[in-house]
Amino acid sequence: MAVKNISFKLVEGNCQKTYPDVEKFKETFLYILQQTYNKPHITKMIIYRLFYFIDFDYYERYKNKLIGATYIKNSFGPAPAEFNVIVNQMIDINEARKIESEGDKFEYIKTFYVPIRKPNLAVFTANEMEIIDKVVNNLSKMSFERITKHAHSDAPWRSTKDGDVIDYNKV
User: Count of CB atoms within 10 A of residue 36's CB?
Assistant: First the structure.
């Protein structure tokens, strides 16, 4: 499915904010990788779920977007539409490395990532780091099946049609 325009502008007072916030997207990605390097089950699909819960938990609590990615409802759960474009750019400029592996009991290729540089946490507020840490610490322990089931029980995901954009306002 092609997403036509995956970013939009939000007017907050006198300033315009374009989403997704690519800088926060990149730093969140690197932080997730740094915090989960010793967890061999953390694949691209689990990272998708972590991004979703970081964004939607933050929005639910503060009524503002943290990363502001566009999440698409697919059969395995929410997926950030911008993920491949941004992460491939990071790989191209040596900020992260991609590793693909076929598992013994899986019919699909599993994708893993390794950070090459440390994340710049100065781009985050204390409230943003609190949500990021909470999600990463609590949900990165879950298996793919368990985090997917958790995502499928979330109200915004449940109330969205397959293939559609998940609305932040549904939290």
Answer: 20
